[in-house]
Amino acid sequence: MKKPFSFAEKSLDLASTQIMGVLNVTPDSFSDGGQFTSLSAALRKAEDLFRQGASIVDIGGESTRPGASKVSVQEELDRVCPVVERIAKSLDVVVSVDTSTPDVMAESIRLGAGLINDVRAFSRPGAFDAVKDSSAALCVMHMQGSPTTMQEKPAYHSVLEEVSAFLSSCIDKMVEQGVQRERLIIDPGFGFGKTLEHNMQLLNGIRVFCGLGCPVLVGVSRKSMFAEILNKPVSERLYGSLSAASIAAYQGAGIVRVHDVQETKDAMLVVDAIRQFAECKS
Known about the structure:
Blueprint: E1 5-7, E2 10-12, E3 18-24, H1 39-52, E4 56-60, H2 73-90, E5 94-98, H3 102-110, E6 115-118, H4 127-131, E7 137-141, H5 159-176, E8 184-187, H6 196-204, H7 206-210, E9 217-218, H8 224-230, H9 238-250, E10 255-258, H10 261-281
Parallel strand pairs: 3-4, 3-10, 4-5, 5-6, 6-7, 7-8, 9-10
Antiparallel strand pairs: 1-2
Helix pairs in contact: 1-2, 2-3, 9-10
């Protein structure tokens, strides 16, 4: 049996699918922008996510949707850090921070964050130095292009091979620079420079990423791929999101990043029960 995965001072058993609840403290995120910009509203949301079954709360202070406004370093610090500090002190959850900004990474870790979740895979100058000597877990994600350009005709020879090769290279580079492999989590980056077909190929191939030897995080909740499949707005993509999260978890994804925690918790309990049954019978 694998030992629990460490997130600084906390640890989680990723043999059971862990749920990461989304907490955007931004005015312009695609799904819930503007709802939790005050500290009190953010704390109430974090408490709700925890009560519903989230073991990780992912705090984001800068939207990465195409066309989102740029945020200054100070503004991101002001949005994120008070929330990190209060949640770390008051709730028994892993605090994750969704950021690519080195100053935000360093200050969040100082205040109690156990995971830094970077859509740019620690590629900004100073990002690696901000996290390398900490005990926080690090999630590296694949993105083709940048948030402003990523959906402008994304193209791959083989999306599964290219994303896998990128993530494998990131793992190797970080280990070579002194980061323990046991701190790393990988994310194939659904919707970040991918078409619907690319996303479906990735979802069908989650086992490939699990084979890289690091826990896999999957974030498909409410994404635009469901607009194309279901022809429904953001507010009506729950069942599509649950289906995709279940497919990913059954193949071995250890963490699912979601907006709808309570519903996902029930789905993951069923998926985990079936996986455990299959393992006992094999």
